[in-house]
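Sequence in, structure out.
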Amino acid sequence: MAISDWAVHLRPREKLLQLGPDALSDAELLAICLRTGVPGMSAIQLSQKLLDEFQGIGKLAAASCQSFCQTKGLGEAKYAQLQAALELSRRSLRDEMVKGSALRSPDAAASYLVSTLGHRQQEVFVTVFLDNQHRVIACEELFRGTIDSAQVYPREIVKRACHHNAAALLFAHNHPSGCCEPSSADISLTRQLKTFLEGIDVRVLDHLIIGGNQTCSLAEKGLL
């Protein structure tokens, strides 16, 4: 049965307008993004099939166009629709982070970084540059690596900090394994960077480790 034949209160779009997006399942929200199903499968059934195949919305969001389009009935148009919706969400979170202080609104910074890094398939090292009131100047992906490591160059961080005239920095990188616990190498690197940056009077406020939808703060653990 097509979704248009369902009772009005069960249709995802109408349900969202009546009850809000929080009332919808992942499959229902995805169905609104995809808009249509394929022969023999409604948009919701297609969405659930995708979520099952990719093991959740996070991995689906990080899927390449090629892997996404391997599902029968899907093509570049639907991939573009989904990626556009995801990018709007990331930009909304980025704007929330940029509006305030990275210290006074740590949840906004963490939410943006999780949405950006949480399901990347390789390690990515991000630096958030802050002014002397801890307002965000810029957020840059500086280094990328393999599935389990990214080579970080302190001199490049110093160069970018000077370029932005930053007074403080917030680091973040992801663990593709999904575990957000810091490794001994993470702790050692952070302390090395902190010492290096003290030479140009730039403070390191925190280093967030992102694993899936979870974060770990080295500052909160007393590991800076």
